[in-house]
Amino acid sequence: MPSAKSMMQDLYFKKNSLVQTSVTEVECYICGRGLRDGCSISAKTLSNGMALFCELHYSLQ
């Protein structure tokens, strides 16, 4: 069984490394309802890209 020392790992991070992210609230492409409204949201790939739909509009596409 390996010792605790051999299981440790050193991590090194570059200083001043910039991480950029973007976050948007998920909502139905058609009606605008989202998780805040208690809807489940699913993504569907369409011919012109990907879109998010609620449980009501997912089956219509």
Tell me what the structure shows.
The radius of gyration is 21 Å and the shape is elongated. The longest helix is centred in the first third of the chain and has 4 residues, at 4-7. The model has no long low-confidence stretch (mean pLDDT 84). Helices cover 13% and strands 20% of the residues. The protein has a domain at 25-61. The N and C termini lie far apart (55 Å). The chain has 61 residues and is an alpha+beta fold. A two-stranded antiparallel sheet has the order 1-2. It has helices at 4-7, 55-58; strands at residues 41-46, 49-54. It contains two helices and two strands, in the order H-E-E-H.
What is the topological layout?
Blueprint (H helix, E strand, L loop, with lengths): L3 H4 L33 E6 L2 E6 H4 L3
Query: What about the largest sheet?
Result: 2 strands, antiparallel
Helix fraction?
10-25%
Radius of gyration: 21 Å
End-to-end Cα distance, whole Å, is 55 Å
Average predicted confidence as pLDDT: 84
- Helical element count? 2
Order of helices and strands: HEEH
Low-confidence segments, ≥5 residues, pLDDT <50? none
